Amino acid sequence: MVLDSYVDAVPSAQNAxxxxxxxxxxxxxxVGATAGDTPLYxxxxxxxxxxxxxxxxxxxxxxxxxxxxxxxxxxxxxGPAFIHAIEANRLAFLRCLITKELLEIKHAKFMLGNxxxxxxxxxxxxxxxxxxxxxxxxxxxxxxxxxxxxRSDAVYLWTHYFSEQAMPPGDERREALSGDVxxxxxRGLTVPLYRRGYHNAWKAKAFCGGMHDRHYWMERExxxxxxxxxGFDDIRIAHDQPDHSNGPAFSVFARRSAAGA
Length: 261
Hints:
The protein is α/β, with parallel strands linked by helices. 24% of the residues lie in helices and 25% in strands. It has seven helices and ten strands. A seven-stranded mixed sheet has the order 3-2-1-4-5-10-9, with helices on both faces. A three-stranded antiparallel sheet has the order 6-7-8. Helix 3 links the parallel strand 1 (60-64) and strand 2 (82-87). The chain is globular. Residues 199-203 have low confidence and may be disordered.
């Protein structure tokens, strides 16, 4: 059984990828190996974010939920001072480390754990926080936005959102929604939160959701209202997809304009 842990083959990228199951994203062609199916190395969202922010050369970046490190790779190529990339899923964290080696990511430190207590306790002020595919997995999405606002004057979000108009009753995309709506108050704003579950999707090795099965979606306008209440007065929208196969989704770049570019 001990000998089964060895790889008796010529060293290759594929050997490393095959150590951890459940890859979602493909590797760039120059790696010459097969991982997942989605070519996220061609993702237009991170380049759009960087167009809004400006150069990240020498800047401090925090990436929440890097999953497999492909967005990290895109950011790393721009020469930041450093990227703190925090991933809570053990298998995803290991895939990030493999990606770091195969793509020679130089400026990122991948960390395993919950980014909420990190945001609560760190004294680092980041120039940019990236939270792609994160907000809609949170059990308290408004609290995450509040913590982000404490640690940076610029944030990029890509997230699903709830829309009665885009996703009316009978829409199959609503099946994961429990129908329960909880309302919270935030700085004078009433925010409805729409409860959702994973329906055992977390059993798959490729699962890329949050750590709690009870999570909530916000409405599109409420996301922007909360950001506004947090002082983000320069808010830009792109990639709005009401017909996204998993539910309405969009990109948001938000900055406190007083912070400068």
